Amino acid sequence: MQLVIVESPAKAKTIEKYLGGDFHVLASYGHIRDLPAKDGSVDPDHGFAMSWENYGDKGKQLKAITDEAKKATRLILATDPDREGEAISWHVQEVLRAKKALPQTVDRVTFNAITKAAVLDAMAKPRALDEDLIDAYRARRALDYLVGFTLSPVLWRKLPGAKSAGRVQSVALRLVVEREREIESFVAQEYWSVAAEMEQGGQGFTARLVRWKGEKIDRLTIGKEGDAMAAKADVEAGRFTVEKVETKPVSRNPPPPFTTSTLQQEAARKLGFSASHTMRIAQQLYEDGAITYMRTDGVQMDGSAISAARKAIAERYDGGYLPEKPRQYQTKAKNAQEAHEAIRPTEFGRDKVGSGDHARLYDLIFKRALASQMASARLERTTIDLVDGTGQHALRATGQVVIFPGFLALYEEGRDDSEDDDSKLLPRMAEGDAPAKKKVTAEQHFTQPPPRYSEASLVKKLEELGIGRPSTYASTLQVLKDRDYVRIEKNRFFAEESGRLVTAFLERFFERYVSYDFTAGLEDELDDISGGRAQWQAVLEAFWKDFKPKTAEVMEQKPSDITAELDKFLEPMLFPPKADGSNPRACPMCGDGQLSLRGGRFGAFIACSNYPECKYTRKFGQPGGKEGEDTGPEVLGQHPETGQDIVKKSGRFGPYIEMGEGKEAKRGSIPKDLPDGEMTLDWAVKLLSLPREVGLHPETGKPIVANIGRFGPYLLHDGKYGRLSSTAEIFEVGMNSAVAKLADAANKGGRGGASREPLKVLGKHPRTEAEIKLMAGRYGPYVTDGTTNATLPKAVEQDALTLEEAAQLIDARAAAAPAKKGKKAPAKKAAAKKPAAKKAPAKKKAAAE
């Protein structure tokens, strides 16, 4: 019997159908082991020796593989055709060797598509494991571990509120933060445009002013309304005739088939997919045999695929759409590695696959690959210059006409941001024609700051800089989101306060390691290892000998000294010069205090030097106190019963109300669904009166209470919860409605009657595809895949929980579940819960990535 190992059960099932009865195909479910999330997993003092640890949730798969390997005459490692696939095969081989279960014959096979022909062809051409790729994997894994587990503790101790730092993650974050700074420092410039709406032969068109008073007009030339109105009057008074008509043929060639990064970019632009979602769907299409391997830098297609594409084009379109010779593309990406084929359909006669997002992504891949072999589009670009009788003023109209669509008949590449593209049709005109002038307009404009990065444009920028690898971009961007260093609004990245602070810290104390050139250069060295041109331990040694002393130097500094240095470093952003020339650090509350950056348990903030006498604070991320600056307490009025002042304040965690002073003071946050401007005395009195007792439950006689909690407004009765829709409902809900809501929550909630609305949907389980949700339970937050529930260990912050960490908790809980079955005696085995708690350090592991 011959044992074949692949990553996923879906892939195993498909491949086993193609092979004969002598083959048994098993899945490893991805990586089977990794570096333990603890100090010492990589030992720089002993040749960067690595201590690997099997995943706790892979015990069942490893046992099955080991049992079958002992009976097999040959082991065929058929994992994915890239560095990670090579690493998985190597790990399987090493684990079996340690268990003395390695068959005498071990072969490695790779295929770029899961089709019968590709699989059988690969089986006929086995090879040995690629040691260079394995060394490159070890170097990359060790490097990411050393950066994460050396730099992250520095952050935790010296920068309160920071969660992690990673080699590629930190540089990607820097790009987002730098764009945020560009936008904030941008000063808009006013300019005006003058244009005439004209008509020739019954067809209208627009011509813009390009020369005025004999001077050339650029976009920013006319900067004042007075000049714009004068220019408008001159155009209105002039009689314009056609001086020149220039027609220029233009050819547009089709873009090449998708690579990993271009697929992520185009799916983000056209389908609104995140990079991680795109890769997840592409993985499933690959495993279903619909497309070729989706982690690639290559843009070339196999000769047989090109022939199939040309045949499909000939069947769909007439001969003009098929170029005489097949198109050949060359990879231009910096540091192109492991150049497999481009991403393409396995069959060009199959234009539809699946449904929903699978169908949409496949359609994109199919059209792009097919269009790449189609004829060029031919266009005609026309420019018409019109001059008035004095020759001092000139207008220009431009447009283009598609003469032959070529590949545009099937596919047109999207754009990250809108660009001026004057593609309007123009009427036929000749020199001497005098088109009718219908209307002249003068419009005011302002220059715009550079746009924030979208996933597509950020991936494109990372690739241009040679930072990271396309196959890792999805996980890199996901880490930034999971750590709350960035947020996504309208498909754009916004830098959060924590992300800005971490970036400032790294720029000030670890500038070299977040520089674009250094990071790209390190990628070159890693690629040299995979190409056999460098020794992996030598590359790590060169990095470590400078990096380790630098982290030790920063670790020795006091947190207060770190904060003081950051205060100086960030002064231009936090305390920009004021228009009136006054001191930008002057406290707006007490007048004589000086503002400076402070570090607290929950992160950085701006505070007055006269604390505690002056309690002025504002958020770290408000440059110069903009966007909601705390201008001091506002007295809303006196409480009708106590007569005490109720004061509205703004703290590090947002606006709140306070009545009284010191330990006896009563406080309440202003709910997000209640706009700050609506915080009246009546609302303040209501909020300070919480919790509100709705009444006694008619069945139990126990009180029903309405209140605001960590996750919003709720009802509480006998330890069971029901969710309310708004803050207003807390004060409006009556007994009948409250009883109904609690009953509904109990029916949906299962154990404990907790509300079943998820706190967060984390995504699909990477191995079972079940949707994983973060839930609020009676005994604390937990994660569930619909079948297995796993309580979050105390060491794991629910806001920082990643999909992989949740999946590991669920897998560990599922593996431990059988120990709870049977009689009461074994129920004492609290150890059954240990696997889940053991995964708590997975938070650190993610930090290292």
Q: Would you identify the regions where 5 or more consecutive residues have pLDDT less than 50?
A: 334-339, 623-631, 750-755, 819-849
What is the terminal separation in angstroms?
Answer: 39 Å
> What is the arithmetic mean of pLDDT?
84
Class from helix and strand fractions? alpha+beta
- Strand tally: 32
- Percent of residues in beta strands: 15-25%
Q: Largest sheet, if any?
A: 7 strands, antiparallel
Number of helices: 24
Radius of gyration over alpha carbons?
33 Å
Q: Give the overall form.
A: globular
Proportion of residues in helical segments: 25-40%
Subunit structure: Monomer.
Domain Topo IA-type catalytic: 130-551
InterPro entries: Topo_IA, Topo_IA_2, Topo_IA_AS, Topo_IA_cen, Topo_IA_cen_sub1, Topo_IA_cen_sub2, Topo_IA_cen_sub3, Topo_IA_core_domain
Region (Interaction with DNA): 164-169
Describe this structure in words.
- Residues 820-849 have a biased composition (Basic residues).
- Belongs to the type IA topoisomerase family.
- With 849 residues, this protein is α+β, with helices and mostly antiparallel strands.
- 36% of the residues lie in helices and 21% in strands.
- It has 24 helices and 32 strands.
- The strands form nine sheets. Strands 9, 10, 11, 12, 13, 14 and 15 form a seven-stranded antiparallel beta sheet that branches. Strands 2-1-7-8 form a four-stranded parallel beta sheet, with helices on both faces. The protein has a four-stranded antiparallel beta sheet with strand order 21-22-23-24, covered by helices on one side.
- A hairpin with a 2-residue loop joins strand 30 (771-777) and strand 31.
- Helix 5 (131-158) packs across helix 24 and helix 9 crosses helix 11 (356-371).
- The longest helix is centred in the first third of the chain and has 28 residues, at 131-158.
- The two termini are 39 Å apart.
- 38% of the residues are buried.
